[in-house]
Amino acid sequence: MHTWRIPKFKLGKSKDESENNVDENNDKSWGNGLFHFHLGEKHHDSSSISNDNQQEHNIRKTSTNETLPSTLNSPKFRDNASFKNLSGAETVNSAALESKSCQSTVEKKASHSGSGLMTVKIYSGKDFALPFPITSNAAILQKLLSSGVLSSSPNDDSEVAAMIQELPRYETVEQGSMGESLIKGTCATKFIPSTILLPGSENPSPLLYFTLEFDNSITTIGPDMGTMEHPIFNKISTFDITRKLQFLKIDVFARIPSLLLPSKNWQQEINEQDEALSDILKKINTNQDILLDSFHLPLNLEVHSVPQVRLYNHHWISLERGFGKLNITVDYQPSKNNPLSIDDFDLLKVIGRGSFGKVMQVRKKDTQKIYALKALRKAYIVSKCEVTHTLAERTVLARVECPFIVPLKFSFQSPEKLYLVLAFINGGELFYHLQHEGQFSLARSRFYIAELLCALDSLHKLDVIYRDLKPENILLDYQGHIALCDFGLCKLNMKDNDKTDTFCGTPEYLAPEILLGQGYNKTVDWWTLGILLYEMMTGLPPYYDENVPVMYKKILQQPLLFPDGFDPVAKDLLIGLLSRDPNRRLGVNGTSEIRNHPFFKDISWKKLLMKGYIPPYKPHVKSEIDTANFDQEFTSENPIDSVVDEYLSASIQKQFGGWTYIGDEQLGDSISQRKSFR
Ligand SMILES: Nc1ncnc2c1ncn2[C@@H]1O[C@H](COP(=O)(O)OP(=O)(O)OP(=O)(O)O)[C@@H](O)[C@H]1O
User: Does one domain contain both 212 and 322?
Assistant: First the structure.
């Protein structure tokens, strides 16, 4: 356990402060002089007079004596790069935007959006198989079949008895394990119900189920009845489409009772011979679900002129490793530009708080899809001179397409608030898991760092620097894949040779060139990636100190030390990433320099980008609606979109003009806004 770190501490701003300040029901909570501390990007106006005092004040909240060491250069306060909008058609100088903070961004109105609805109907499955044999114990199988929902009429004993009578036909005798009688994996599923009714429970528990994943939105589909070999689903799921991804990802999971496994002797032999199967057996023995197989269903969602297109019609798809088939129909319906409002969502739970408002779990009323809705108060954003960062967050989220970045589904606004609708990622923050486990294994650290490398690379390709990599901003999805969130500190429009000099980030992760105020470029993200890898593998960032000025000094001067027995290849990678000279840092010549390091030698980047590796750790997530991995402090709150009564002038409103997003394009002022601004 490492409890050394002040949770959620971003430079100059403690979580306590931000939470107090965003209490939307508390009028005293804003305009009280506290600020979001990204020096230089927003303190050019009169409020910047108290910069130094505020910096001290805010930092003092989290530890003692934490001002910048006097030996360091003062951070610079200007940032002159320009701000490019989504279409790239118009640019607005961000420095001008920041310093005046009240100039309008004029955005192009698009004639159509790329949005639509995709409906997936799943009828049944066949030929499902297991990658291992099961015991041919008639008593166990009979009991299991009797608790299963085999057909629409209640299972009668004679049906089960007839199935059990068939059992000897499928028995084989394994030679190596003392003549044990087993049923091959290909036949085993005939004797396992796809869903069972546990004693005392009214809801069936699926033993076979699958997830449909599109743009990080997940739906779980469980069977109504049938055996595992031939499950009947008859389910429909509708997805909101706001970007044209090329695949629908289907993952099939099985929940196998450990009683069905062959003897311990047999398992022991497997453990010595087959690593992949041994992992599966380990999961079954610890009551975890196993990923049976996957499929990437190709989709053609290009703009269709007809109102509805049938992409697949009662089509049988064979899973990638051949463990079964599914019968599905897929329809796509392009939709009109209908900007959303808060009324289009059921508010389910509060799941977090950011600097400017709360994050809620919501259900979109028409498609029933679950999302995370981030609400931000306009007046508070303006008072903190955070308009540029807020617009940048929305812009980056709408532009970037990477499976390891939380996708933006929609954005809309009311006169008082901005709303971001994001995929709901419910495996918990990496920060929480790291705190809980102290440190991660080499394999687990490598997996997370590889997915993060792809996420940062996709941002760099869009000329965006992330600048705030830390475990608090990294979520795990239900399977354990990375989902990077919180783009409030992104810097846009950074070409390879461009430098910026804004002093921002999180103390433990600040690169030396930021501390020295020398100007920095994309390579700061490689420094933070190195710090994160070190922290995952050892439990602490390399230069951590409770005293922030001492920590800064260590970042600048202390040699990089490794615990005894540290993996030499990881060490070599870290030495490269944590080079104090950004011009010699690994990655300065492009991401491929890092990808090609021997640390990642066994990784197929193509496979990784398809989410093709099974994550080393699967978070405990019961369903797509499960909020068990969120702090009760939030989930116990009443989920309401609190009413704020703050008048904002037309010129201020204009700054948020290009906020609305419902697909590939920006919409400028939405219809609903025009209505509401009267
Ligand atoms: N897409 C999401 N799915 C699930 N939870 C989310 C999602 N986005 C945010 N959260 C939760 O809400 C919290 C706050 O969100 P976020 O970090 O984006 O806010 P912020 O204002 O940018 O935060 P900060 O104050 O750190 O800048 C996160 O730590 C996370 O727990």
Answer: yes
Q: Do residues 298 and 409 share a domain?
A: no
DSSP state letter for 105: P
As for how many domains the chain has, the answer is: 3
The H-assigned helical ranges of 489-557 are 512-515, 523-538, 548-557
Q: What pLDDT is recorded for position 589?
A: 94
With bands split at pLDDT 50, 70 and 90, how would you rate the model's confidence at 645? confident
- Is 546 in the same domain as 404? no
Q: Looking at 334, 363, 393, which one is the last position of a domain?
A: 334
Residue 648 placed within a domain: yes
Q: Calculate the dihedral angle through the C-alpha atoms of 552, 556, 562, 568, rounding to the nearest 10 degrees.
A: 130
The CB of 11 under 6 Å from ligand 1? The reply is no
Q: Among the atoms of ligand 1, which is closest to the Cα of residue 426?
A: 4
Residue 556 has pLDDT above 80, yes or no: yes
Query: Do residues 414 and 445 both lie within one domain?
Result: no
pLDDT at 606: 94
Alpha-carbon torsion, ordered 112, 115, 116, 122, to 10 deg: 160
Tell me: do 491 and 531 sit in the same domain. yes
| Least confidently predicted of 97-106, 136-145, 161-170, 550-559 | 97-106
Same-domain check for residues 500 and 407? no
Residue 44 within any structural domain of the chain: no
CATH of the domain at 435: 1.10.510.10
The residues, any chain, with a CB within 8 Å of residue 328's CB and separated by 6 or more, are: 120, 121, 122, 123, 297, 312, 314, 315, 317
Do the domain assignments include residue 463?
yes
8 is annotated as contributing to ligand binding: no
Predicted local confidence at residue 668, as pLDDT: 43
> Considering the domain boundaries, does residue 677 fall inside one?
no
Q: Is 422 in the pocket of ligand 1 (CB under 6 A)?
A: yes
Model-level ipTM above the cut of 0.85: yes
Q: Is residue 294 within 6 Å of ligand 1 at its C-beta? A: no
Measured in Å, residue 674 CA sits from the centre of ligand 1 at 29
For ligand 1, whether the C-beta of 488 sits within 6 Å is yes
- Ligand 1: residue of 362, 435, 485 to mutate (most ligand atoms within 8 A of CB) is 485
Query: Best of 17, 34, 359 to mutate for ligand 1, by most ligand atoms within 8 A of CB?
Result: 359
The three-class DSSP label of residue 94 is helix
Cα dist from 143 to 137, 153, 222, 227, 260, whole Å: 10, 18, 21, 14, 11
- Residues that are catalytic: 468
Of ligand 1's listed atoms, the one at least distance from the Cα of 352 is: 12
The label of the residue with tokens 């008895």 reads 161
Cβ of 469 below 6 Å from ligand 1: no
Answer yes or no: are the C-beta atoms of 452 and 474 closer than 8 Å.
Answer: yes
**Phi, psi dihedrals of residue 17, rounded to the nearest 5°:** -65, -45
Last residue of a domain, one of 334, 362, 392: 334
Range of the domain at 599: 428-620
